[in-house]
Amino acid sequence: MIQRVIAICLLFVLISGVFSSPHTQIAYSLNIPKVWKAMQYSDTLSEREIVLTFALKNRNVEWLQRKFENVNNPFHKDYENYLTFEQIAKITSPSQTKLLIDYLTSIPDCSVLNISNHRNLITVKMSVKSVNFHFNAKMMPFIHQESKEIIFRSMNGFSLPLELVEL
Questions:
Q1: What are the CB-based long-range contacts (under 8 Å, 24+) for 138-146?
Q2: Separation between Cα atoms, residue 52 and residue 7, nearest integer Å
Q3: Do the beta carbons of residue 155 and residue 131 sit within 8 Å?
Q4: What is the pTM of this model?
Q5: Nearest alpha-carbon partner for 51 in 142, 143, 114, 94
Q6: Which member of 63, 73, 113, 115 lies 3.0 to 4.6 Å from 123 by CB, making a disulfide possible if both were Cys?
């Protein structure tokens, strides 16, 4: 039976720098519904690949909100002066996307699956063992009592290189 792994979403805000610096632990709370039961961690499960989605903070969000209000206000000079998808992406896309991609691709078993059009969501696949090592996580498996689906959750949160943490 093929068991799916639910994607884990980690929220990152990037700043500039090199990734050889110390890590910062991110506060985390874990609530597991009763239908999910903890499984024994094993070497076999540590090799399982999971999907992670990193979300980066967009730039110029306040400006975009004002632009939205102006183009919809019949009394404003920018009324109906809409922007294209490409114009919005150029103005709001995170400036440090490459920095995160460079860090992720430096992890040996990490493969980039998708980068969103606005370059603010990066989806990767990597082993549980790599997530534990590179993000100082303690990923533990949980099995759904009815569907038998297996998911992984970090029991201690995760840590990030200081360059990836919002100040």
A1: 139/50, 140/38, 140/39, 140/41, 141/38, 141/39, 141/41, 141/45, 142/32, 142/36, 142/37, 142/38, 142/39, 143/36, 143/37, 143/39, 144/35, 144/36, 145/35, 145/36, 145/37, 146/35
A2: 5
A3: no
A4: 0.71
A5: 114
A6: 113
